Amino acid sequence: MSLRTPLRPLARILPARQKGENPDAIERENLRLRHEAQRDKMRQRAESRLILVALCFMIAFGAVGTRMYALATSDVEEPELVTNGASIVNTRADIVDREGRVLATNFVTNSLYAHPHEIIDARAAADGLASIFPDMDADALHRRFTSETRFIWLRRYISPEQEQLVHDLGEPGLLFGPREMRLYPNGSLAAHIMGGASFGQEAVNAAEVIGVAGVESEFDEVLRDPARGDAPLVLSIDLSVQAAVEQVLAGGMAMMNARGAAAVLMDARTGEIVAMASLPDFDPNARPRPLTDGEAADSPLFNRAMQGVYELGSVFKTFTIAQALEEGLVNVETMIDTTGPLRMSGFAINDFHYYGASQSVEDVLVHSSNIGTARIAQMIGADRQQRFLGQLGFFQPTAVEMVEASAGRPLLPSRWGELSTMTISYGHGLSTTPLHLAAGYASILNGGTVVTPTVLRQDAPVLGERVVSEEVSQTMRGLLRSVVTDGTASFGEVEGYAVGGKTGTADKPRTAGGGYYEDRVIATFAGAFPMYDPQYVIVVTLDEPSETSGPEPRRTAGWTAVPIAAELIRRAAPLLGLRPTIEPLGAYQLSSASQ
């Protein structure tokens, strides 16, 4: 307990009075000292408070600065959408080609909607929107804006330019909702492979992007899986080769006056589809609606390479002869009776040209003899033919990773008798897709093992079931090379790339009433290059071509599909890294011994 200092200390005052001094002076001095002590105490208290306040400010500013530094140095993250109901997954992985070039990605944009009760001038807003979006009707918009509706969707997505124009209208009742949309930066390139995407669940501030066709639909769950992070879906497609194929195919389709066209370029050992095109096509950024009437092939959405099921004609002779060689029924020098017509069950089989009463197996393929091939098919028989074609995958849809693949189911004869065996041997009576054909040729020419078509990039070949021996595969390479150098596919020669292949011209069946058109065909070329060591298989198919440079229209594959295939190879081979070379001597072994 502190003692209070008295204002008039008697210990000093009493002696002062005895000495005649003034005690008031002592009191004033004592008061002054007390005031100074109080002032010093208050000053110390104020300084302590100032220091405390300054320390608090330093701590606060330090915390803010630390947080700002952390945000500035951290990776940018999109804000997460919080909803009361089920969350909308609005992320989707990119799709890239085999070289990492973007085929499909996401684009940040906005939707446009309206709150009519917040619109100030309905007439001006309606007229303004109609001027920005020509497909909108100003009067219809005005009626909706003046109705009792409190929410109106106007556009599911708009461009930045359109968004700015709507902003410029200055109407508070026109609002924007952030969302992502699917963007295909290459437009219609590889459209049928991409397929397209649309919106699923939608909210004002988010929208779910879902695949509707092609790989977008097939891999929808994979592309939407948040666990993938930034990892894209890598396809087997080569964007540069795809562009060259589509450009050449479009030019060839126009030149040959064809109704439609398809092309497949496939790695002969892995089954990777390097390029696949179907014309006419579409832009997946503005995917058209499916047709409600007419033929499916009339729609640009129809994938002729994968969904088009056709009788492909003489390209099937390759399989017949390969099987006969594998079964040891013939060799390349075996003479086959080609006198005609060959009659079976009231049906006459004829050749397009007459090359004599008998021909070797090699000449049967080079000259594309229907009669000779039918005779060889008789040796094989229906059961063995069915087993062989089944091994090559001609009885089921292809296993390629696209939703449209299931629609490409081959059409088989209801009764597979001797006549069907003979006609199927040269490509009539069994309908299949160009993609089936490409896989079949790859399986015969790659050394004899079955390949499965795929649109995903593969790290190594996947060896399938063996269908022919290495020796038969080598022999077939030589035979198909001869078809280009000496036979019906002479326009297919591309200097330096040793092209081999087979033509096929099949009458087109009538859509109603049965029978075949007399002046409409499906023209096909199926081949490979370089034939001494096949790296790639190519198939080109034209729907109703007609080459008109001569006095009479020419519709056969040798005049229509083959020149297009040659130009495709000429353009694509350098892009694939294949240098033109001199064909090695002894590259083919056309053995005369029975296999």
Q: Largest sheet, if any? A: 5 strands, mixed
Summarize model confidence as the mean pLDDT.
89
Shape: elongated
User: What is the CATH superfamily of the largest domain?
Assistant: DD-peptidase/beta-lactamase superfamily
CATH class of the largest domain: Alpha Beta
Rg, alpha carbons:
41 Å
- What is the CATH architecture term of the largest domain? 3-Layer(aba) Sandwich
Number of strands: 16
In the predicted model, the low-confidence regions spanning at least 5 consecutive residues are: 78-86
The percent range for strand residues is 15-25%
Number of domains: 2
Structural class: alpha+beta
Question: Which fold name fills CATH's third level, the topology of the largest domain?
Answer: Beta-lactamase
Helix content estimate: 25-40%
Give the N-to-C terminal Cα separation: 124 Å
Helical stretch tally: 17
